[in-house]
Amino acid sequence: GGGGGSSGGGAAHTPAPDTGKPGAATLSAAEAAGGLNRQEAADGTPLVVGLPSNAAVGDTVNTVLTRPDGSTFTLSATVSAAELAAGQVVQTVSAAVLGTADGRWSVRSSLSRGTVQGDTSVLEFVLDTTTPGTPQLALPEAPGRITAAEAQDGTTLVVTLPAGTVATDRLEARLPSPSGPVLERSAVVQA
Question: How many angstroms separate the CA atoms of 137 and 158, rounded?
Answer without folding.
Answer: 6
